[in-house]
Design a protein that fits this description.
alpha/beta; 9-stranded parallel sheet; 9 strands; 273 residues
Length: 273
């Protein structure tokens, strides 16, 4: 798809800072993608793999020129494997976070996504949480020095990621409180938390102090808002009401007939009131 600078400025009135997915603009270079998102009136994009982009310094410069912010990038840990819930994995986790900090600085991102790893057999859940807290404490000083936040993502185990350790909002909030750093928080993915525990608005409001980043998708299906059961205008209003001013990042695939222009309009409508 060619870049179109004549698109409608859908994002002008949005009350939360939504990030579009770079993958919605196939055929554009990363630099052109940033320009296209800006033309829509959006001020953020996300691609968890952007830290590996060869042109990330040029992307950073373009973002600074146009007032666009890169969202979170991958920071460390794993979903299915041996993550920081294992004490023996902490040196590797620290190295991953240290490298991700370098990548984030080059790109202009200030947020890294951390993954707890899978539940370990023959080790109590309490000990695994202790290990995860220790891992967070271990990397917190370097994050604070860099001005970058690591957000541990909670994932659902009922449908998407069986065996993953960090699942529930109260569990994650307890972890964050025990780590005790303003640069180690939670990633609240509305799609996952709706499946895991429901009561999305109650939970994001209750634990707003521990949340450092958001992902969203409708459920079921994990597609754009309006394709499932979630009322995203109410959810975005609730996020805004907590005082959160960071990025709220889309993380979903488009339905077959939904174009990039469609989804930019749909999301902006949900975030405008």
């Amino acid at each position: 798809m060619p870049m179109d600078s004549n698109v409608k400025n859908y994002g002008a009135g949005m009350k939360v800072r939504l990030a579009a997915m770079s993958s919605w603009f196939p055929g554009l270079s990363n630099i052109e993608m940033v320009g296209q998102i800006a033309a829509y009136g959006y001020t953020a994009f996300e691609n968890l793999g952007a830290g590996k982009w060869a042109d990330k310094e040029a992307v950073k410069a373009k973002c600074e020129e146009l007032g666009v912010k890169p969202g979170a990038i991958s920071g460390g840990g794993t979903i299915n494997g041996d993550g920081p819930v294992n004490l023996g994995n902490h040196a590797q986790f620290e190295a991953q976070v240290r490298n991700a900090i370098r990548e984030a600085k080059a790109l202009g991102s200030t947020c890294l996504v951390g993954l707890s790893g899978a539940v370990r057999e023959r080790l109590s859940l309490e000990r695994q949480m202790d290990n995860l807290v220790l891992a967070g404490k271990r990397v917190a000083p370097m994050l604070e020095d860099a001005g970058i936040t690591l957000v541990f993502e909670m994932l659902n185990t009922l449908r998407s990621h069986p065996g993953y350790f960090l699942v529930y909002s109260d569990q994650g909030a307890d972890m964050v409180d025990r780590i005790g750093s303003s640069h180690v928080k939670l990633l609240f993915d509305v799609f996952h938390q709706q499946i895991s525990e429901g009561s999305v608005i109650d939970n994001l409001s209750k634990f707003s102090g521990e949340i450092g980043h958001y992902h969203f998708a409708d459920n079921p299906g994990r597609h754009e808002p309006g394709t499932g059961e979630l009322n995203y205008r109410n959810i975005f209003k609730a996020i805004a009401a907590t005082g959160y001013t960071g990025i709220v990042s889309a993380e979903f695939s488009l339905t077959a007939n939904c174009t990039a222009d469609d989804v930019m309009r749909i999301m902006a409508d949900c975030a405008t009131w």
